[in-house]
Amino acid sequence: MAAVTDFAASRALVIQRHRHLKWKALDSLESSLMIACGVCIGGFTLCVLLDVVTREIGHPWLWLQQATTAFFAWGVFVGMAVATRRNDHIYLAEITKRMTGTKRWAIETCNRVVVFVVAAFMTWFGYKNAMLDLGSFRQPWLIPLTVYTGIVPISGALIMLFCVEQIVNGWKNGFEGPEDTELLGEATL
């Protein structure tokens, strides 16, 4: 596990911002999710390029649209999960980073609880939808729709995990980080 964590840190895929809200044990997961995002963006881009080129030369590859859809869906939902861990998305970070004390604690906790509840709905209903989609297929290759919708409950579960991580660490270490005290110093100048 230490080798994986060292690899993740050495590749700088795990940002150190808000380090006090993160568990080192999940750094390799964040690193893997960032790699998956890159693969999805690259795959999506390549599929769109090949789709345009093959259509222009008069020999379209119809399956490229299915691959493009899969890369897009997986990229969006994996990206949502990793953005949650990085505190880059979803939360009201711009409002709370200038707050301190109990007011900040309450708003940060409420933010994460709301995101946790939404992620729980994503997990539950996404799972039910993915199971229903096992019986539905996309033409012409008969790919189950679960290939596209299966990422929703996975993303929801990851977002829930990252919310718990941040709530526990925020209550333990405080939600304010070094990057926030720099902002407070700038605001007083």
The SSE order reads: HHHHHEEHHH
Overall strand count: 2
Number of domains: 1
Mean pLDDT: 84
Biggest sheet strand order reads 1-2
Q: What is the helix fraction of residues, given as a range?
A: over 70%
The computed structural class is mainly alpha
Output the radius of gyration. 20 Å
Secondary structure tally, helices? 8
Largest pleated sheet: 2 strands, antiparallel
The termini sit apart by: 45 Å
Low-confidence stretches: none
Shape: elongated
Strand content: under 5%
What does this structure look like?
With 189 residues, the protein is mainly α. The chain has one domain (2-13, 23-188). It has helices spanning 2-10, 27-56, 63-85, 93-96, 101-133, 146-149, 151-173, 178-188, and strands spanning 137-138, 143-144. It has a two-stranded antiparallel ribbon. Strand 1 (137-138) and strand 2 (143-144) form a beta hairpin. The longest helix is centred in the middle third of the chain and has 33 residues, at 101-133.
